[in-house]
Specification:
362 residues; mainly beta; four-stranded antiparallel β-sheet; globular
Length: 362
């Protein structure tokens, strides 16, 4: 299990003894399982310390420990082990522009392609999908969606899946995005782009799911043949059986109820890590049982009260956008919207809409 979050069992050593043949050996009852504690802001640290990032919504960690994170000014930023930042990927050469109010971009989902030689970067304001060569740091815009694209993932067949949170377009893409957070609009969707041959253009996307209330992050678990998706304003993580070869989806199931589930990552044990910006916490969800546990939650009584009011309003169908203020995030550098997991589980990084990550662990 993940070492940081789920502590290992304590080893016990028994002295050698020879029981009497007339006396049954005493058997000690098993020790109760240790309940992992929820980590708080005090267990982590602002990263990088100079708080030089801009909306680091998502990211990945390379084999050498370098972090590559979304950045609204540069497109992508690389962070060394000590937090030294530098622009990465030269997205501007591929057409990325962030010059508000005339033109605003917002790199959102960042994911490895199979083989980890390339990244996919989805822009939630413009709908542009970028492909980044990690070795050469060259970037190509490979698809332009009519609406903002939240997250994209390439599966083992070469097909690309992506979510559309709402029908937001420039120049009011951000305003429309938050309107879909304020009250459910039912215009979220999941698409699949079939694999293309070498050097051939991508086919037109196929609509796989529609009518979603703010489709957000997702995980395609090819081992389980299941796709797990956050429907943020639905308040749950959904599961769909998937035939990866054809892209066919089965009936949906509700895996877990979560207050505004946002980005999802899957760890080495198969647990889903789900970010909840309104609850200001990271949770793990067992996709087989639905068991949910809060892993990281900064102490913030004012924010907890706001989260309760949010749940009340959502149940009543009332507007909620005025609740998304600084009091929700507490000591965090911005709204908590995701997580970057590291190999071995000694460290994770809470991501969000502020100016830094929070590094938790070694």
């Amino acid at each position: 299990m993940r070492k940081l979050i789920l502590p290992g069992l304590l080893a016990a050593s028994l002295g050698a003894c020879t029981p009497s043949p007339l006396t049954a050996p005493a058997v000690a009852p098993p020790a109760p399982a240790e309940t992992p504690r929820t980590l708080t802001f005090e267990d982590g640290a602002i990263f990088p310390a100079n708080r030089s990032l801009h909306r680091p919504e998502s990211g990945v960690v390379l084999e050498d420990g370098t972090l590559i994170v979304a950045d609204q000014v540069h497109g992508l930023v690389a962070l060394s082990a000590d937090g030294t930042p530098r622009p990465f990927g030269n997205l501007a050469a591929a057409g990325y522009v962030h010059a508000p109010p005339e033109a605003a971009g917002a790199p959102n989902g960042v994911s490895f392609e199979p083989g980890k030689a390339h990244l996919l970067v989805a822009d939630i304001f413009t709908g542009t999908l970028y492909r980044v060569d990690l070795a050469t740091e060259t970037t190509t815009a490979i698809y332009d969606h009519p609406f903002g694209m939240n997250y994209a993932h390439r599966d083992s067949t070469g097909a690309i899946w992506f979510t559309q949170s709402t029908e937001n377009t420039a120049p009011n893409a951000e305003e429309r995005m938050f309107a879909a957070v304020n009250l459910p609009l039912g215009d979220g969707a999941l698409y699949r782009i079939a694999p293309a041959g070498e050097g051939e253009p991508l086919p037109a996307p196929e609509l796989k799911l529609s009518g979603l209330n703010f489709a957000n992050g997702f995980v395609l678990d090819e081992t389980r043949s299941e796709l797990f998706l956050s429907e943020s304003l639905g308040g749950h993580v959904l599961g769909y059986k998937v035939d990866v070869a054809t892209g066919a989806l089965g009936e949906r199931r509700v895996v877990a109820q979560v207050t505004i589930p946002d980005n999802i990552e899957q760890d080495e044990d198969g647990l889903l890590w789900v970010a909840s910006p309104m609850s200001n916490e990271l949770l793990t969800v067992n996709p087989d049982t639905g068991e949910t546990r809060v892993v990281f939650h900064p102490v913030n009584p004012a924010g907890d009260a706001i989260a309760e009011e949010f749940r009340r309003r959502r149940a009543a169908g009332e507007p909620v956008i005025d609740l998304l203020g600084p009091d929700v995030q507490g000591p965090m550098p911005g709204l908590l919207t995701g997580v970057i997991l590291t190999p071995g589980g000694e460290t994770f990084y809470a991501t969000g809409l502020g100016d830094a990550l929070v590094k938790v662990g070694e």
